């Protein structure tokens, strides 16, 4: 059985038994993130592997603290520019 790391979420995809690993050219769905991947296997080795449709949700989470710090830095920059140029 061939195991491949998903390009979208990095989890291990175990290919089903019915897939011929000696010669396979088709699509596989990652069970973890539901992304659709194209894979080409020749003699049990990966020849091509790419994401067809990425359904993984991004890991970006902006907390209120980070947002406040960004706003504070921008306002301080504006304040410094006003003081520097006497605006």
Question: What descriptors fit this protein?
Answer:
single chain, alpha+beta, three-stranded antiparallel beta sheet, two-stranded antiparallel ribbon, 1 helix, 5 strands, 25% helix
Quick rundown:
With 87 residues, this protein is of the alpha+beta class. The protein contains one helix and five strands; from the N terminus they run E-E-E-E-E-H.
Question: Overview of this structure, please?
Answer:
By secondary structure, this protein is an alpha+beta fold. It has one domain. The protein is 25% helix and 33% strand. It is built from one helix and five strands. The protein has one helix spanning 64-85, and strands spanning 3-5, 12-14, 23-29, 36-42, 45-53. The strands form two sheets. The chain has a three-stranded antiparallel β-sheet, with no helix packed on it. Strands 1-2 form a two-stranded antiparallel ribbon. The radius of gyration is 24 Å and the shape is rod-shaped.
Give the helices and strands, then pairings.
Elements: E1 3-5, E2 12-14, E3 23-29, E4 36-42, E5 45-53, H1 64-85
Antiparallel strand pairs: 1-2, 3-4, 4-5
Oligomer: single chain
Poorly predicted runs of 5 or more residues: none
Largest sheet, spatial ordering of strands:
3-4-5
Helix and strand content put the structural class at: alpha+beta
Largest sheet descriptor: 3 strands, antiparallel
What portion of the residues fall into strands of 2 or more residues? 25-35%
Distance between the amino and carboxyl termini: 69 Å
DSSP summary: helix tally: 1
- The figure for the number of domains is 1
Global mean pLDDT:
79
């Amino acid at each position: 059985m061939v195991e491949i790391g998903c390009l979208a979420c990095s989890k291990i995809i175990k290919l089903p038994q019915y897939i011929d690993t000696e010669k396979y050219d088709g699509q596989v769905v990652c069970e973890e993130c539901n992304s659709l991947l194209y894979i080409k296997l020749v003699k049990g080795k990966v020849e091509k592997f790419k994401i067809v449709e990425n359904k993984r949700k991004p890991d970006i989470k902006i907390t209120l603290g980070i947002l406040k710090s960004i706003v504070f830095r921008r306002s301080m920059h504006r304040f410094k520019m006003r003081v520097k140029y006497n605006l």
